[in-house]
Structures are given as C-alpha cells and as structure tokens.
Amino acid sequence: MNISYNWLKDYLQFELNPEQVSAALTSIGLETGSIEEVQSIKGGLEGLVVGHVLTCVNHPNSDHLHVTTVDLGNGEPVQIVCGAANVAAGQKVIVATVGTTLYDGDQSFQIKKSKIRGEESFGMICAEDEIGIGTSHEGIIELPLDAPVGMPAKEYYNIKSDYILEVDITPNRVDAASHFGVARDLAAYLKQHVGKADLVKPSVDAFSIDKKDGAATVCVENSEACPRYSGVTIQGVKINESPEWLKNKLESIGLRSINNVVDITNYILHETGHPLHAFDLGKIHSKKVIVKTVEPGTKFTTLDGVEHTLNERDLMICNENEPMCLAGVFGGLDSGVTDSTKDVFLESAYFNPTWIRKAARRHGLNTDSSFRFERGADPNNTMYVLKRAALLIKEIAGGEIVGEPVDIYPTPIEKAEVSLTYNKINTLVGNDIAVEDVKNILSSLEMEIVSENAEGLVIKIPTYRVDVYRDVDVIEDILRIYGYNNIDFSENVKSNLSYKTATDESNQLQNLISEQLVGAGFNEILNNSLTAEAFYSDLTTYPAANCVRLINPLSNDLNVMRQTLLFGGLQSVARNVNHRAADLRFFEFGNCQYFNAEKHNGEKVLSGYSEEAKLALWLTGNKVSGSWAHQDEKSSVFVLKAAVENIFTRLGIDLKKLKQTQFNSDIYAVGLDIALQNGKSIATLGILSHKILAKFDIEQDVFFAEINWNIAVKEAQKSTITYSEISKFPPVKRDLALLLDQNILFSDIEKVAFDTDRKLLKEVYLFDVYEGKNLPAGKKSYAASFILQDETKTLNDKQIDNFMSRLIKNLETKLGATLR
After folding, report:
1. Cross-strand bridge partners of residue 561
2. Which of 166, 264, 441, 479 is the most buried (most CB within 10 A)?
C-alpha cells in the first residue's frame, strides 16, 4: 500500500525523515518495502530562479528575437536571448539557468550556453508550459514586481517533494490500510520512543443540516450481511475538476483524478480506510435505497461494463426497481456520479466481511473497497466518515445537506474486553516491562483501561482492531510498540534437552530417501494438493464420494483435496512429454485427504475426515537412451519395483517379511500390492491402465508406485541396526528350473524357500523366466538360484542335499511346481 510522507503530516507532526519513518514503521510491524520520491511538477523546478529583466533590445540579426540582460541575484547579470513577444525591461520573470533540465512529457532537454544568430545566451526565460505550472505558451511568465530576485522557483511556487512509502499490510492489520491508520501507529511509536506525539483527527463538528426535507430513505432487509448502514443526501452539487491539492494527494499514491465528488470518496478511503460510495440521487427511483439480496440469475452490469449473473448470496444496494451496486465491492454502470449529476446520496456502511469476500471471489473482482470490507472495516466509524466526506463535498462541490443522516444500526457491535496480567506479559515478552509503560502503550493504541488491580488490567479493544481479541494479541501489540530491540538477552545461556519428535524422525527419513532417489536418477516434483473432482469420477479405488470438497473453490479444476498423488504427477508427466522430454523419473512426498461419510458425526466437525502422508514414484520412457556404451532400453515395472524395494531396504524394513499380491483395478492394468504381515498395505505399484492415461493424453506406458509413508516410517522405527561378522565359510549356490502355473509369483517361491529353512538360506534370486513354445497351456518356467551358507562351518553335501530335497517337496505340495 502506498503511503504519502507529506499526507501523514496532516495528522501527525514529526521530525523524522522518510528513511527514519520507514525504519520506525518496520519496527512496529508495518514493514516498508521501498521509498520513492515524487514531485507534483516533474523535475521539481530545480535550477529555475526568479530574475529581473534589466534591459531588453531587439536582436540585430532577427526581426522577432530580443537580447536581454537579466539579474539572477547572484552577481553579474547574464545575457539571454528571448523570442517571447511580451518580454520587456523591468519585468520579474522565471529563468532556467545553464545546466537546468526541463521536461516535456517523457522528453527532457538541458539548458546550455549557446549562440543564437550570433548573440550569446546564458539561459532561458520561461513560459508556463515550459516548466509545467500551466498550459499557456502565449508568452513568458510575468511575476509580480515584488517577487524576490534570485529566489528559487520551487520556493516561489511552494513546490514540495513528497516521498511514497510502500507499506506491506499484513491481512490482519486492515486498521493500518489508510494514512490515518498508519499515523495512529506511528504516533504510538513516537510516544514510547520520543516522548511526544499529537495525533490530530480532522474535526466534523461543522456538520449541520441545511434543509429538513428531500432526503432519500433507506431500508435494510438483510441485517446479517449489513449490520450498519449510514447515508446522507446532498443536493445542488456541481461536478467539476478537483482542486490541485486533492488531485496531487491522489496522484501521489497512484490514483487518477475523476471528478470532485468521486475524488473525495477516494480521498476519504485512503485517509480513514473506510470505503464510501456516491450515488446519483436522480437515478434512485422514488429516492428509496434498499439493501437486500435479489433473485438468483439477475443480470447486473458493473461500472467497468462487465455483466455479472447474481446469486442469492450477493448483497445488493437497490432502488425500488433494480440493483444499483454490488455492496462493498463495485458500483453499477448506471447509478454513479457523472458530469450531469446534481444531487448525491452518499453511502457509508459496515458490511459482513464474509459476505463481501465471497461475493468478490464469485465475480472475480478485487477493489480497494472489497479489500478493506472483507478484512473488517470499523463498524463504529461510519457516521464520522460520512460527515467528513459530506463537509468536503460542500467545501469543494457546493450543495446543501438535506434531511437527517440515515443510520440503521439495530445491534451495535461492542468493544471486546480482554483481561491481561502483568505476569503473562513479562513471561511472554521475556523482559519485565514497567507497569506505567504498559499503560502508556495501551493508551497510545487507544485501548481503554476499564479496571485494574495489582495483578493486571481489563481493557476494551477499539472496534477497528479486528485482529485483537485475546490477551496474547494485546501482548504482541505491547511488544511491537515497546520495541523488539529493547528486549535484553542474558549473558547466561539457558538451554534444555532436545529430543526427536515423530515429525522430526519422518522429516529426517524423508530427506534420506529423497537423496537416495535423486542419486538413482529421479527428480522431485511438488504438485497442488487441490485437484479436480472429475479425476475421481467412475473410480472405485478412489471414489468421488470420498473426496474432501471445498466450500468455495476457485474453479472446478481445484474443487477437491487429492486422495492420491497420482493425478498431479500424471499432469507433470503429460506436460514434459508434450515438451519432448519423454524419459522421466519423478517422485513426490505429499499429504492426501479423505472423507468417510459413514464415520461423519454432525456434532464433531472433523469426524470422518482423515489425512495420510504418501510417497509416490512415476517412471516412463527409456531407462537408457542415446548412450554409445549401451543400447536404448525401455523402463519397466521391474525397475520401479527395484526402486521401491531399495527404499524399504534403506528404511530398514525386512523385505522377507513383506507379502506381495498381484491384482488389477481401475488404476492399474497390472498391479502389485505390498503388505505387512498383519495384512496392512504399505505400498502399491504397477502399470497404469490406458483408460487413466487417456485422460491426460499420454500414449506411452507409465509405471506408478505409491507408498503409505506413515506406515513406512512406523516400520522403520521398529528396525534395529545389528552387527555381525562376515562369515569365514563359503556360500553354496544351487539352481532349480521350475514349471509353474501362470498365476504363481516369484514372491511365492521366495516365501516357500525361506519357510523351508531360514537359517541356511541366505538369498533367492530369479535369473530366467520363460513362457511360450514347448510348455503346457497355462504354465510358465522360472529358473531360480538359492544361496546357502552356514555361519559356523562349511556346508557338506549331505546338508545341502537335505535342504534341496525338502525345498523341492515344499514347492511341489504348496505351489504345484515340477522340475524341468
């Protein structure tokens, strides 16, 4: 938000320069990003002075030029050649001295010593338009004869530079979204750190009613959306250009002048932070203003010419026939003040922040008014602001105030009361702040002390401080004014024992696995946790009914929380493939959310909702591509499975204790479920179905795995690292070629083998799979190696043969295997 340094001084006199003001505001929580110098006249009239024309004669080589001598008040007069018809001896004029830069729009030129038709010229006698104080070019400026010679033109015309402070207003500090609001905080700072600061609020005591009859009437039909509505009628205004001071105020903060009445409403907005709206009274049918909602589907055209379709939750300011304004957001096309306006109805209201925020989002509008109303305006400031604006309109645009001001406020909003103890202040701050300092700070923040005792205070919070309603909020305010830099740090270091929480452990393991995956060629991605409900339509694995829906989504593409990381990753895959990057390895850590209607209890808001942390991997394209040392090789689901097993191994999860089950679903064409011994699934992986890929226009195979990170971390925490010496005795390898049914998995062979003898059997691996000719229908051939080793002695043939015979028998009885 732009804050004018000079404008602040209208309410608070201080000696701080702009840089010091910036530092002070930043120290009390109103961070200032930049300071920019602005000038009402470009260049600030630097280098221009008042001169006295001593002589003026015709140029010997021209029929329209004159040669003058001009006293600039700094010694010897200078010669200046001038072409103006009205130049004459004895005049007081404005002179641009040698070296001065003059501006013409975006163009600039520098005054130099020159010869004009043989005569030297040491400057330029200026016209109004040449220095930016007017538009006339009929001749040079003729000043009064008492104008002091040598006086800088910027002093003569009272040209002052201003400085614009870019103040970053946090969402909770809407009370500082105005010049008076910032001045109020700055005054509190000065009272604490300088000792004196007189904050001056413009008076509205001069407000009076000129005529009793002729005012508009108001009816508020929806007091929930509009708790307070104030208004006043002003007749006989003259719409015109704003005076220079008002235009300069607005232009300094980047606002364009429109007309005097509209400019006043904008000025008051940036002065007080309270939005106003001016209606043309002639366009209010029957002079009756009605605050209400309208029929859904009603069309309404805003001031920018855009047509909007209203719904039943849009609060409108209407006349008897039609809506005139989207309350607190944007005015209508046919109700605002124009050059032909004679009478004005001025609105100053307090609208429910939730209603305004939702209406603004629904219609894609973001205005200065909605910015303030949706964060919370001051409900008890509407009448002051109304009177302030009415007085300015009378002063600048003329007119008469007719009828009593309207003020509909059925349920006044009271100031919040907060109990505060000195002990809690000192405990949270970490310093002992004197009781008098606490009281002075509270007073400077306009917090009223209702009662006090030795332990603390009871205070009332101003209604403009919508963010303060707890004792800790008040303590934060005390601390920011007291000064964070004033907190003393003891020379003694106080420390406590630290320990790892479950979150710390999870984060540490997450970093560990991330490094492992990056080392294996994966890239980490991060997708939006909001996604489209359309992805879940017609799915049974992730039913749309289990989606956590947003009440007020920004769009249909972001209307639910994700149940799986799958779809965000597929969007990333599709984007990269479309940009000719088809060989991809992605992984992502993220949370997924679920809703279970059966577990939902209306009395407990969060019942039925759950969240799980997941780790997902995507693999597609070639494993090896474009290598001189290796032929191109496509990625496969087995590469993905190896990555998943490496993750489990790195976490210390024993692969032998995991159960693998093959399945297919509406997500996987072929999938593998990996579960713990208790049957709880820890991961799924497989080849994604073409139906899923078609939703993203992906034509190549994509392999996907999703690990339940919460379960994985719990299993990892159970594992213990043990040490054992490398065996001194050699291992023995035996191979078997087995004929099996098509539905038998290698993991089934592993399980049977280890169940046969876990002490001697160290490893089982598959080295060949055959399906095709010379095999019975429905059969396949596995060739596997079995590694045996005794830690205490060398194995003999009898032990080896005993194990192999038992293994073959178990494979035959449990899996129906036969040796080839």
Report:
1. 530
2. 264
Confidence check: pLDDT of 78 > 90:
yes
3-state DSSP assignment of residue 174: helix
DSSP assignment of 71-122 equals E-SSSS-EEEEE--TT--TT-EEEEE-TT-EEEETTEEEE---EEETTEEE-
What mean pLDDT do residues 57-67 have? 92
Burial class from Cβ neighbours inside 10 Å (0-12, 13-18, 19+) for residue 330 reads: buried
Question: Helix, strand, or coil here: 662?
Answer: strand
Tokens 């992986």, residue located: 685
Q: What is the pLDDT of residue 716?
A: 92
Q: Give the C-alpha separation, 216 to 277, whole Å.
A: 15
Instruction: Tell whether pTM > 0.90.
Output: no
Q: Give me the residues paired with residue 24 across strands.
A: none
Comparing C-alpha atoms, which of 121, 130, 141, 132 is closest to residue 70?
A: 121
* DSSP run (H or E) holding 482: helix 471-482
Alpha-helix residue ranges (DSSP H) falling in 157-302: 179-193, 244-252, 260-272
If we measure between CA atoms, which residue out of 45, 46, 42, 153 comes closest to residue 92? Answer: 153
In this structure, the strands spanning 448-452 and 456-461 are: antiparallel
Place of tokens 């013409």: 104
Contacts of 555 (CB under 8 A, 6+ apart): none
Residues 6+ apart with CB under 8 A from 296: 310, 311, 312
Q: What is the dihedral of CA 500, 502, 507, 508, to 10 degrees?
A: 50
Task: Give the Cα separation of 288 and 318 in Å (integer).
Answer: 8
Longest pairwise C-alpha distance within the chain: 133
- What's the order of all strands across the beta sheet hosting 732-741? 761-770, 779-788, 732-741, 818-819
* Tokens 């000065």, located at residue: 190
Q: Distance (Å, rounded) from C-alpha 25 to C-alpha 29?
A: 6
Question: Are the beta carbons of 308 and 363 closer than 8 angstroms?
Answer: yes
d(CA 457, CA 468): 15
User: What average pLDDT does the segment 52-70 reach?
Assistant: 93
Cα–Cα dist 539/567, whole Å: 13
Q: Which of 66, 132, 63, 145 is nearest to 96 (CA)?
A: 132
435-444 vs 422-429: helix axis angle to the nearest 10?
A: 90
Pairing between β-strand 2-4 and β-strand 161-167 as defined by DSSP bridges: antiparallel
Q: Positive or negative, the Cα torsion across 130, 132, 135, 138? A: negative
* H or E element at residue 70: strand 66-71
Contacts with 10 (C-beta within 8 Å, 6 or more apart), sequence order: 179, 200
The first and second tokens of residue 487, run together, are 């907190």
71 with 80: CB under 8 angstroms? no
Closest CA to 447 of 411, 429, 428, 420: 420
Q: How far apart are CA 679 and CA 700, in angstroms?
A: 33
- Among residues of the chain, what percentage have pLDDT more than 70? 99
Task: Say how far apart CA 82 and CA 79 lie, in whole Å.
Answer: 10
